[in-house]
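Give me structure tokens for this 134-residue protein.
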Amino acid sequence: MTHYCELPDYVENSELKQHFIDYLIYYSNNTDKENIYYSLNELLELSDRQWHTYELIDEEVKEQLEKYLTSLINFEDEEIMDYILNIIPRIGLDKLFDYIIKNRNNIKNQNIKLNIDESIAEYGNSVNNPYSGM
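Here you go.
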């Protein structure tokens, strides 16, 4: 198991890139119903560290994270959607956000729809750049 919550708030971008790669290697092969929330919490911790670098995440890592999260997404699970909607703006996962918006009308859970609507209002068209407006 990983413990990214133990990392300092600020980590060099190159070191973070390696943590993201390690994360993807570990969790891409080991995420199941038993540890999905833990893995998403760990990614949220890494994403928060990335946001604190004030640098955009490596494009290749970003693409791999979007693929990984797309494979985990459950549009009716509030906890999964909450994690994902909090990770998206920290590292600029615009393709994943677009995917969620396109599927919004198929979601039955009204709380998740409301959370998506609030995210749309908050992130707007700048979700791909976490530092927009700074």
